[in-house]
Amino acid sequence: MKIYNTLTRTKEEFTPITPGTVKMYVCGPTVYNYFHIGNARTFLFFDVVRRYLQYAGYTVTYIQNLTDIDDKLINQSIAEGIPVADIAKKYIAAFFQDAAALGIQPADQNPRATEYIGKMIGLIKKMEADGYAYEANGDVYFSVESIADYGALSGKKVEDLQVGARVEANTQKRHPADFTLWKAAKPGEPKWKSPWGEGRPGWHTECVVMSRDLLGEQFDIHAGAIDLIFPHHENEIAQAKATTGLNHARYWMHGGFLNIEGEKMSKSLDNFFLARDILKQYDAEAIRFFFLSKHYRSPIDFSREIIHESAQAVKNFYSALEDIDYLGIRDAAYTLDAVQLELREQFTTAMDDDFNTARAIAVLFDAAKQAKNQSNPVESRQKFAHILVEMGRALGFFGNLDEKLKTNLNETAEQLIQLFITYRTEAKKQKNWAMADRIRDDLKKLGIQLKDTPNGTEWKVEKQADFLP
Ligand code: AMP
Ligand code: ZN
To answer: Which of 16, 29, 266, 362 shows its CA 20 to 30 Å from the CA of 329?
Structure first.
């Protein structure tokens, strides 16, 4: 498997530190607002990296942090008139909700900056003691000249940064590119006690400390979109090197932007659509397809037209599965033939080449086409359906086949199920528990499973019942 490493600017053979396991850290959101569909591109792509690595047989530990203290949260707290902690709480809940709606698997852990203040102070103290950091009026800065190869990730040179940063004259800094490790609190701001007075840690320290705490001094993959290469990831590396002599991650992966009319979608440019709003208009899998049909390092222009086409393409996958009655055959044993194994080979070759999802999706198309092809023997079509689902799942599709394929029941069958649910609700109101249970159990025998939720009774097809089309 090859991965493009920003650090070496080449596609490198991927060799994890511990064979068979991958430890990865993806920079997460600053939780001061709902995330936009540009952020979603990055979150969703690394969800695919994780899924594919698992498909390829690796045990993956996936960490994504939540930046819950930052200037942006403080400003938002003033704007909404609620404490910073409540801003964080609100948008963390929204982050989990929207990520789940996008079909993104939850990380193994989501460390929060505010839970790591003590450890961050510890790291800053060590850097100060060792001569990598210095204090000025309650702020603490990292000295970029104190390490040998500052700029290795972004390709920037300390001398050039001098010129670029001169406009933002900060007389406290020894070098204009020195970055903040600790920031003294202004009146009314959230603050923590420290050897330099009350204040809060800077963003770049957070990810070094949390990744080290959860994944060790060196792990396999560190990721984000390209805007994080500089300064964020560069500054992380500087601190890691200053404290252990090691770059903390081996492979640095960066995704391209979602643009809108050629410009990066971003909150500051006010040219964004919230993921939750887009999800009201399009299916999550259509959005996934839209992103994956381009290579992750290429920019993508937001296009409703193409999302619409993506929705059609996803429907086509489902219709192939419906045609072959996939729910009816999914648990049956099967052995793939050379034609399906060939598709699997093409799929893994594409994905092993720096996650070429665009080519991988083309293979899914082929599988769907063959599953639909009436001139193939039915067993062969079923096997194409199996390989379609296998590959699709490795990209995060087909997470809820029962739900998606239950429309395979005809309308009358669905109405009948609804009718039985109504009778059961009536029976329960009359405390006729025996009847309520009987309805549930009899439906279950037919492969229809009922589930009582706060919003009423839901149903799903466990397996395709014989009498239904
Ligand atoms: P933020 O909450 O701004 O720190 O961003 C969270 C993640 O989204 C980071 O990995 C960013 O690099 C990424 N990101 C921000 N804007 C975009 C965009 N327009 N396209 C793709 N990724 C983005
Ligand atoms: Zn980070």
So the answer is: 362
Domain chopping of the chain, boundaries: 2-269, 317-405, 411-461
Alpha-carbon gap, residue 77 to 90, rounded angstroms: 11
* Ligand index nearest the alpha carbon of residue 30: 1
Q: Is 38 in the pocket of ligand 1 (CB under 6 A)?
A: yes
Question: pTM to 2 decimals?
Answer: 0.87
CA–CA dist 258, 266 (Å, integer): 9
pLDDT score, position 469: 37
Which one of the ligands is nearest to 208 CA? Answer: 2
**Could you give the CA distance from residue 460 to residue 404 in angstroms, rounded to a whole number?**
10
* Atom in ligand 1 nearest the alpha carbon of residue 30: 2
Q: How remote is the CA of residue 204 from the centroid of ligand 2, in Å?
A: 7
Q: For domain 2-269, give the CATH number.
A: 3.40.50.620
CB atoms within 10 A of CB 87: 23
Please indicate whether residue 202, judged by its CB atom, sits closer than 6 Å to ligand 1: no
The reply to whether ligand 1 has any atom less than 6 angstroms from the CB of 64 is no
Higher pLDDT, 210 or 405: 210
Under the banding of pLDDT at 50, 70 and 90, the label for residue 467 is: very low
Protein residue whose Cα sits closest to atom 8 of ligand 1: 39
Contacts of 300 (CB under 8 A, 6+ apart): 41, 256, 257, 258, 259, 290, 291, 294
CATH node for 317-405: 1.20.120.640
Query: Is cis: bond before 231, omega within 30 of 0?
Result: yes
In a 10 Å sphere around its CB, with 0-12 CB exposed, 13-18 middle and 19+ buried, how is residue 276 labelled? middle
In a 3-state reduction of DSSP, which class is residue 375?
A: coil
**Cβ neighbours around 127 below 10 Å, total:** 22
* Pocket flag, ligand 1, residue 227 (CB < 6 Å): yes
State if residue 73 touches ligand 1 by the CB under 6 angstroms criterion.
no
Q: How many separate helices (H) and strands (E) can be counted in the chain?
A: 17, 15
